[in-house]
Amino acid sequence: MSSLMLGAAAVALPAFAENHAMGKMDKMNIVEKAVETDSLSTLVAAVKAAGLVETLSGEGPFTVFAPTNEAFAKLPAGTVETLLKPENKEQLQSILTYHVLATKAPAAAAIQMVQDGGGSASVATVQGGELTFSLQGDSLMIEDSKGNMATVVAADLMQSNGVVHVIDTVLMP
User: Fold this and answer.
1) For the whole model, what pTM was predicted?
2) Best label site of 30, 47, 60, 70, fewest CB within 10 Å?
3) What's the CATH number where 94 sits?
């Protein structure tokens, strides 16, 4: 599964994304950082239920848009509990891999893409869908395929295998 996921998205981000990481890189990988972050405990439970711990602990590089516990709480009642059931593993994997890019993309790279794109820029996710970046004031916004908008509330958490951007809304493929 991990090689399929890594090959699933050829994301055309500028070389800037790979070469201009903003912030100090952590020695932990993306999953280890999420585990130690209280506000991401629902995401950690979902990553475990989806069987993605090994993949997202791998070499990468990855960019993960990590929904907070509050983001998951905004979903309709019972949604999270339903997704965590073993029989919904494939659907959960699809949702979670929709939050992952197969490259290391600091916020500055996404902002530059938006500016170069005349106000928006689309990127392919590991899941195979697209996310659209835009700016609202100084905030980096991410629109999913359903038109839901997420705000990056904490950017550029640099990890050993990529970067995490914390978001306030769960993105749906």
Assistant:
1) 0.85
2) 70
3) 2.30.180.10
